[in-house]
Amino acid sequence: MCGIAGFVTVRPGPDSDAALARMTGRLQHRGPDAEGFYRDAHAFLGHRRLSIVDVAAGQQPMTQESGELTLVYNGEIYNHAELRPELERAGHRYHSRSDTEAILHAYEQHGMDCLGYFRGMFAFALWDSPRRRLFCARDRLGIKPFYYYWTKGCLHSRRR
């Protein structure tokens, strides 16, 4: 069990960092082992971690090699080890054994069609900074739900 939170905005405010810290702090019960933050001019992503898979190298938010894609994620991709050889043959380099990294590489390779490759329970938010695109998804059954809302030029995660 982990927790993700964040927002994307067209106009960041002076309190954006504090808002992200408050949002992520409210999820401490979901991830007592670690917390992490990603910020740029438009995206503010936070993560609370319960360390299970690749405890040493699976920290989040996770960014791929070029620094263009950043992911916060909750769940498990059961077939991530099966996806890895195909992605490595396509030129992707792994730096961990984490299923989180498999999501990043699958998105690089397949775009939003990457969802068709995943078997598991998950909710994630992936920030594609060059395109200024936030790609959010959850598993087909909603085992890991994802709540959000849009207000005043800002997309927020929503806690229930």
Write the layout of secondary structure elements.
Elements: E1 3-9, H1 16-25, E2 34-39, E3 43-49, E4 62-63, E5 69-77, H2 80-89, H3 99-110, E6 120-128, E7 133-138, E8 148-151, E9 154-157
Antiparallel strand pairs: 1-3, 1-9, 2-3, 4-5, 5-6, 6-7, 8-9
Helix pairs in contact: 2-3
Description:
There is one protein chain. With 160 residues, this protein is an alpha+beta fold. Helices cover 20% and strands 34% of the residues. The strands form 2 sheets. The protein has a 5-stranded antiparallel beta sheet with strand order 2-3-1-9-8, covered by helices on one side. Strands 4-5-6-7 form a 4-stranded antiparallel beta sheet, with helices on one face. Strand 8 and strand 9 (154-157) form a beta hairpin. The longest helix is centred in the middle third of the chain and has 12 residues, at 99-110.
Provide the CATH architecture.
Answer: 4-Layer Sandwich
Distance between the termini: 15 Å
Q: Which strand order do you get reading across the main beta sheet? A: 2-3-1-9-8
The structural class is alpha+beta
The profile of the biggest β sheet is: 5 strands, antiparallel
Q: Brief overview, please?
A:
By secondary structure, the chain is an alpha+beta fold. The protein has helices at residues 16-25, 80-89, 99-110; strands spanning 3-9, 34-39, 43-49, 62-63, 69-77, 120-128, 133-138, 148-151, 154-157. It has one domain: Aminohydrolase, N-terminal nucleophile (Ntn) domain (Glutamine Phosphoribosylpyrophosphate, subunit 1, domain 1).
